[in-house]
Amino acid sequence: MTTTNATMKQEVRDLLKSIETGESGPASIIDSHKYIQHNLGVKDGLAGFGELLAQLPKGSARVNTVRVFQDGDFVFAHTDYDFFGPKIGFDIFRFEQGKIVEHWDNLQEKPGSPNPSGHSMTDGPTAAEELEKTETNKALVRSFVDDILVNGKMDKLTGYFDGDKYVQHNPQIADGLSGLGAALKAMAAKGITMKYDRIHRVLGEGSFVLVVSEGTFAGKPSSFYDLFRVANGRIAEHWDTIETISPRETWKNANGKF
């Protein structure tokens, strides 16, 4: 079965929107025999997905998928949710023979106000450019996360940016390398540590690259999803979600977060 990139992206949009509309049709894209769930609060398989939706108060969900990208068999989406409360989330779906067979996500509570530079967690460009540079941009972003966030090689930091031109969507951090530096300094003063231990996945389409990493934030095991926009070989923009990984005894499936 041949499935175009545009079709896969639309199928993901429709599936996510069905959380709001209650339509059952879009869920047919899920392979009920193979579906592997990595959201640790949801039981495995298609039945687990259905059970979660059944718990939603009728008419309460809102889903606005802001951007969707595709990398091979993977489609990843960035969505503004009201789903048991306002949240911003990244979802990754793996396709096999035209059907969705695996799902990962990372959700963070949506803040009530913009960040210090006036940005929300989802605004900004939505269309991928530099499509011919996908692999180059993925390699650049992987190196950035590995050098700076995993290994703390701060002497390499400025080489990844065009001066102080850097648009930041993290709710606590202002634009620019100066904003990032000020935020890290403020966190350190409060004794809040953020440590990236390993990169699990790097997905990209053109100018947009998503990195899935594992580490700790404020002493708690955490999952980091960082979306970067690359322009002319430099990192130009950043969106993210940070989610605490719940204790293993509370997991509703045995597939792990990653």
From TrEMBL:
Region annotation (Disordered) maps to: 108-127
**Pfam families according to UniProt:** SnoaL_2 (PF12680)
* SnoaL-like domain mapped to chain residues: 141-238
Write down the superkingdom of origin: Bacteria
Q: Which InterPro entries match?
A: NTF2-like_dom_sf (IPR032710), SnoaL-like (IPR037401)
- Could you tell me which Gene3D superfamilies the record lists for this protein? 3.10.450.50
Q: Which residues form a coiled coil?
A: none
Designated name of the protein: SnoaL-like domain-containing protein
Q: Which organism does this record belong to?
A: Labilithrix luteola
Q: What is the lineage of its organism?
A: Bacteria, Pseudomonadati, Myxococcota, Polyangia, Polyangiales
